[in-house]
Write a structure and sequence with these properties.
Strand 7, helix 12 and strand 8 form a beta-alpha-beta unit. With 323 residues, the protein is of the alpha/beta class. Strands 1, 2, 3, 4, 6, 7, 8, 9 and 10 form a nine-stranded mixed β-sheet that branches. It has a two-stranded parallel sheet with strand order 5-11. It contains 15 helices and eleven strands. The N terminus is likely disordered.
């Protein structure tokens, strides 16, 4: 038993202030098991998190984690951590935003803020990327033209402003072209007869930005029959459902996929040249329940110790007292 625990127990006993009379003591909290939450192995957020804390073994192998509960996305992670006083998890900074249901932790002594991501002092970061189907593989030339127009829109002054509003992190140079400057290069957006549905999916971390971008873009189109259907389940769908094994599966195929990690072009995701690119940068934030008052900062080594199946941190007293 650690010295601090002994002292605290002595004080509680001497003052007659046991948990029965004033609620759970801090000492009792320190003895509680750390409940781990993680994303599934297709998640870009999971890949970025474990790679940046120096534990690549945990990216694709659940057996390398210390009994973590798998959640379906950022929203599910927030809900699970918010409902579990002893929880720890991780989410996209773009999802954290103004959310006050969970508490974001300082990492290696640096606050997870947009400014600290831009100045590169906050190191737990990754890129948001996009991927489309190959040229000639959309099944409809007008749809392909529309997707190309949308990709161009993302890089305009208006597109980048929407990305920043959605908590995507990128530096604006002031020299970005406006959509009106280049819109006429994509006549499909002025076709009032166009009847096109574009299927969009991939990362849940990028979903908010993707929905805002497509909604704004549709508002610039002449036709009321242009639609973007969103079905975001994880970064792993992006290559698989645009150019990979599921690209022709009518129930799951995508025209545009978003990823919250790098694309493995030289490995398992050999995407065609010109079909992918970077949108912005985002940070990953380790989060705990708001009732966890004493745990406010962490490090890569500490997070590895918490999540690794061989790590020494199992109860909250292991990390709160040794941080």
């Amino acid at each position: 038993m650690k010295f601090r625990n002994i002292i605290m127990r002595a004080l509680v006993f001497g003052l007659g202030l046991g948990a029965a009379s004033c609620g759970e003591s801090n000492d009792s909290f320190l003895d509680k098991k750390i409940n781990l939450y993680t994303r599934d192995t297709t998640s870009g957020t999971r890949e970025g998190f474990f790679e940046k804390i120096g534990y690549k073994e945990g990216v694709k192998d659940d057996t390398k984690l210390k009994g973590a509960t798998i959640v379906s996305g950022n929203g599910d992670m927030i809900q699970k951590v918010a409902n579990d006083e002893y929880a720890i998890g991780y989410i996209s900074l773009s999802t954290l935003g103004e959310n006050n249901k969970v508490k974001g932790l300082t990492f290696e002594g640096v606050e997870p803020t947009e400014a600290n991501v831009i100045n590169e002092s906050y190191k737990l970061t990754r890129n948001f990327n996009y991927m489309t189907r190959k040229a000639g593989d959309f099944g409809d030339t007008k749809k392909e033209e529309l997707v190309n127009a949308f990709i161009a829109y993302m890089g305009t002054k208006e597109g980048k402003s929407i990305i920043k509003q959605g908590h995507g992190i990128l530096a604006l140079t002031g020299e970005e072209k406006s959509w009106n400057d280049i819109k006429d290069d994509f006549p499909i957006v002025n076709d009032a007869t166009a009847n096109i549905t574009v299927k969009v999916g991939g990362s849940t971390s990028v979903e908010e930005i993707a929905r805002s971008l497509t909604s704004s873009f549709v508002g610039t189109c002449a036709s009321k029959n242009i639609k973007f259907e969103h079905n975001h389940k994880g970064s792993g769908d992006s290559y698989k459902n645009t150019q990979g094994t599921e690209k022709d599966n009518n129930s799951s195929k995508l025209d545009i996929g978003f990823l919250s990690r790098e694309i493995e072009v030289s490995g398992s995701e050999p995407a065609a040249k010109g079909t992918y690119g970077k949108i912005c940068t985002d940070a990953i934030v380790a989060v705990v329940n708001t009732q966890n008052a004493d745990f406010n900062e962490t490090t890569a080594n500490q997070l590895k110790d918490i999540y690794s199946v061989d790590g020494k941190a199992s109860i909250w007293g292991d990390v709160i007292e040794t941080k």
